[in-house]
Amino acid sequence: MNRCNRIGFMQGRLSPMIDGRIQSFPWEYWKVEFSTAEQIDIHLMEWTLDQNRLYENPLLTAAGQAEIRELSKRYDIAIPSLTGDCFMQAPFWKEQGDARLALQNDFCEVVKGCAAVGISMIVVPLVDNGRLESREQEDVLVGFLESQVDFFVSHAIKVIFESDFSPFDLARFISRLNPNVFGINYDIGNSAALGFNSEEEIAAYGNRIFNVHVKDRMLGGTTVPLGEGGANFEAVFSALAKIGFRGNCILQTARAIDDNHAGVLMRYRDMTVAWLSHYAA
């Protein structure tokens, strides 16, 4: 098999879709995904976390954390990162008063859960319902996160952002935050859908990119199979190689239409291995 220890998959991509959603926590299949990933020789997983049933998620229970650690060891699956869809679904920066405080407390509990299983990066999606719509919302977000720097450091956690900002605006935003703790998750498909130039993006803030989501989207459209959308993967991986990016590439790819989720993920894995290998320094 064609293994690359920098390529992982988004949790749920090896399970059937739930209610037609391309991404959600796979309640019935999350344990099985560890063994399936080992069978197809992918050894990195990015956890997914929804606001619905947040505190029932195994990541936030002591028994669940123990089971996650045991499965990770048994199947040699590392979990370096988490995508916090919960933060996009219920963004504290859009709430007031007690509601905001409750969601900020949720954020801190997620940090503790991540630290308990060895997750070191939390992806905060500032897109869709989580997008920043005003400078006031941005100030609320930045103010809270900066106030928690010591807490994040003590739990060995970095917080990284997806956003729909232009390259200039994202560079401006991330410059407000401590570079030792906060960074960027570069989503190839989202940038393609927004019509951004990947070389301009990576030139603007490449030194703050800690993690990459590999997917393809049509301009202004939804996720499609790799190579069928607007993403210029050659330009992306060339630009990433030029800045010396050595982080992980997580397959957040289109779902299989024939339910052969493992097969399609292997194909996307091999495509990504080829891009990384071709543009390796």
Describe this entry's structure for a reader.
This protein is an alpha/beta fold. The protein has one domain (7-278): TIM Barrel. It has helices spanning 32-39, 62-75, 85-89, 97-117, 135-147, 149-154, 167-174, 188-194, 198-205, 233-242, 261-278, and strands at 7-10, 44-48, 78-83, 121-126, 158-163, 182-187, 209-214, 216-217, 223-224, 248-251. Helix 7 (167-174) runs parallel beside helix 9 (198-205) and helix 9 runs parallel beside helix 10 (233-242). It is globular, with a radius of gyration of 18 Å. The two termini are 23 Å apart. The mean pLDDT is 95.
What is the CATH superfamily label? Divalent-metal-dependent TIM barrel enzymes
* Low-pLDDT windows of residues: none
Q: Briefly note the CATH topology name.
A: TIM Barrel
Specify Rg, calculated over alpha carbons. Answer: 18 Å
**H/E order of the elements?**
EHEHEHHEHHEHEHHEEEHEH
Shape: globular
The CATH architecture assignment turns out to be Alpha-Beta Barrel
Give a count of the beta strands, DSSP E runs of length 2 or more: 10
For the biggest sheet, the summary is:
8 strands, parallel, barrel
Strand order of the largest sheet: 1-2-3-4-5-6-7-10
User: What's the rounded overall pLDDT mean?
Assistant: 95
As for the number of domains, it is 1
Strand content: 15-25%
End-to-end separation in angstroms reads 23 Å
- Just give the CATH class: Alpha Beta
- Structural class comes to alpha/beta
Q: Into which percent range does the helicity of residues fall?
A: 40-55%
Count of separate DSSP helical elements: 11
